[in-house]
Amino acid sequence: MNPIEVHYKNSFATIKIGHYLGSQMSNNSAIVCIGTDKCIVDSLGPLTGTLLSKENLDIDIYGTLEKPVHAMNINDYVKSIKKKNYSKIIAIDACLSNKKNQGIIEVREGPITPGKGIGKILPEIGDLSIIGVVDSSDKEFHDLVQDTRLSLIYEMAQIICEGIVMGIKMKFLAEDDYSEQASISSL
Fold first, then answer.
1. Residue 187 lies in a domain
2. Pseudo-torsion of CA 167, 106, 11, 159, nearest 10°?
3. Helices in 84-149 by DSSP H: which ranges?
4. pLDDT digit string, tens, across residues 7-18
5. How many domains does the chain have?
6. Domain that includes residue 29, residue range
7. Would the pTM count as exceeding 0.70?
């Protein structure tokens, strides 16, 4: 499936994210939200994880504000998650790009390589990736920390969370519809 890119303020953002994920998710999925709560520019993942954990979803969620998945512990999480044999892992992380892409959410097949944008070598994770462009890669780190607004991160996290919830609902509605059609055709 082709990747999607949508600005978080686009009125169809949650629908586009949900539609993409609904067709890709399985019953044995997990969500890994990467980042740290100690730095606003890198808090998109854990904030999304916290919002998702309040939705009472029947899906494993790793990485919240309280228990983030970050550079210091990601190796342990990757080992633990691989042992669980999930059929689909959705990874979420913030990234830097050019200023015109700020606010873009990209959903695509394939893993995320956390820390790549700042030169860290960390393990890849995910079958599906959700990446939020939170600021410009042209800035110095000090400026990123000072300039990135929490409101942007929070609104992007809300859109991603709503899109995931919609994707899960679409997946289960499609399965219910399929089950209903199967039972009708067996009559």
1. no
2. 60
3. 141-147
4. 999 999 999 999
5. 1
6. 4-182
7. yes
